[in-house]
Amino acid sequence: xxxxxxxxxxxxxxxxxxxxxxxxxxxxxxxxxxxxxxxxxxxxxxxxxxxxxxxxxxxxxxxxxxxxxxxxxxxxxxxxxxxxxxxxxxxxxxxxxxxxxxxxxxxxxxxxxxxxxxxxxxxxxxxxxxxxxxxxxxxxxxxxxxxxxxxxxxxxxxxxxxxxxxxxxxxxxxxxxxxxxxxxxxxxxxxxxxxxxxxxxxxxxxxxxxxxxxxxxxxxxxxxxxxxxxxxxxxxxxxxxxxxxxxxxxxxxxxxxxxxxxxxxxxxxxxxxxxxxxxxxxxxxxxxxxxxxxxxxxxxxxxxxxxxxxxxxxxxxxxxxxxxxxxxxxxxxxxxxxxxxxxxxxx
Length: 347
Prior knowledge:
The protein has twelve helices and twelve strands. By secondary structure, the protein is of the alpha/beta class. Strands 2-1-3-4-5-11 form a six-stranded parallel beta sheet.
């Protein structure tokens, strides 16, 4: 249902004059207020009003030069743990986009996935796209290339597919965690994975094998655990495993912080204590780490910086496109930082 500028101003708690300045991109208000209102208008589903204002000001021609789309092609409704990871990334991306003069739109495509991407995202509307998907594939690349809009992938990489991305440096992060456990005297080190096919988590599993081989850590099949689920499913699986007589190692590296919650619970119900019996390290550095009992040692990912870097890389690609320069795929990696808390003990 259409809404008038006066009604939108009332909903947002600003004057009609301020709303007019925002919709028509006129000076007279701070960049911070303008950016905040533009974001809220987009989130409320009234972004078409901004577009109409731009068209009126430019004689009816669509303006794409200042619009960036942040596209989510994964169903986070089913992956509740992911919800805690992405808001800081989005915040960092949005701040950098505003700094560079772009409008920033978040587009969820839960059901359509990539199949309707070319129908939904028009070249005339957007100068560039930041894209999150569970994994990169030839089919997804074909859809993205078909939009003819410059794009970068968020934490999604496939070495066989030519697409630029900004990702977590999983090799560095996992290696640092394993070496830290060795320095604490642990020689029995296991890994707990949910078994998801998400490209970044598959890479973490592979990086754990590499780190153990390089650091000469003995790998026991019983300690390389795949829960094939998260939450209560993971807890039930782990509890059954350790109650069945399979003894856990002295230290467990968990693929992300949220999976550490069922690991904690399963260890407790199986009669083990963290960290006295089993030390635990998470990955990502989410806020939940500081309120777990005991607090969770983790590999912190600089998520806001990751978001800003996405926009800087995308802005470079947009500039290269405008000058007809060759588009060379680039992968930028953000290192993770070890944050010591109370879940690891020295042997």
